[in-house]
Specification:
Length: 343
Amino acid sequence: MQVDEPAAPLSASGKAPINPLPIPSSKRAPPPTSAAPVSFRAPSAPRKRRQGKHTSHGASRRAIILTPPADSPVTAASFTSEVFNNLNRLLKSDVKSDVILTHASVEGNGICIAASRVPSPSEIAFVLKHVRRIFPSPNVPIGHSPITSTSYLKIVDIPHVPASSKEWALKQHEAFTSALNKSPVGASLAKLIKHKPRFMRASPHSDSCWAWVDIHDTVLGSNARTYISKFVSIGGTNCQIKGARPHSGSVHCARCQRWGHHSDQCRAKCARCSLCSGPHTEANHLKCVDVLSVDVRQCANCTAAKRPADKRSHSSTDTKVCPFWKNRFDRAWLKRQFPARST
Ligand SMILES: [Zn+2]
Ligand SMILES: [Zn+2]
Ligand SMILES: [Zn+2]
């Protein structure tokens, strides 16, 4: 299978500009269509900027990252729809904000609260104040981590771990993690990894696979520059680290249910229900559909892919039934599902 990622061009003469630039004000966040890449103009650098290709910038993120202290019982699951309704109501009534907080997910050691648009610093402060009120903690209060950037890397030529298709992703991940921690480059990279890497076999019968690794980075993407074109030893093979396009693997969007982007990068006009694919969140499913249809399931992806009607009747988060989950590391398969929209 071909994956047409250009090799990372950054190593040529790529030096970080001397003056770090301020993060663009999130109040003037660009519209989604122009969200990435953010343009940077270093006054002393007439040459074209090359950075940005593997890095997506914090100012375009529609999210608030909360960091509960280590001993805190607060998790992403603590953010129930009741908590969200409460916060959204306060945002609207107290600060006349139209931002809507939609869902919570785990991100690194923090909790990522996805929002309908990029929240302003004052909106973030307001949410944080109320989160601390709702979840009081005796010692250290819940913190907030200013979002910087995410850089997207891939590591190629990783020896494929033989395992049943069910167990493969897990086994491959275990082998990858233990190998990373054995080398100095790998161990320092491992500390920056944002979420579980995604693995994809280079081709269906290949003996090697690729790992897609998203890392925390500075606004200028300097972490990515440190690692791109370096090698890590995995299973006795020297595997090269390359830059990747943002979201080049297959990610499931928890907001619109489609594949290929993370929910905080979602550009859909409204949330889609994972249960019935209606224009509402799963939390509001009971309120939005009539009593007789409550148990009707319709997968947004299988419907969009025009699969036969009897093959659509599952929720889009049903990892056991929906073929999109089974094929989530198979880009060619995913691409074939939407021939009309092929990119
Ligand atoms: Zn989406
Ligand atoms: Zn629904
Ligand atoms: Zn499906």
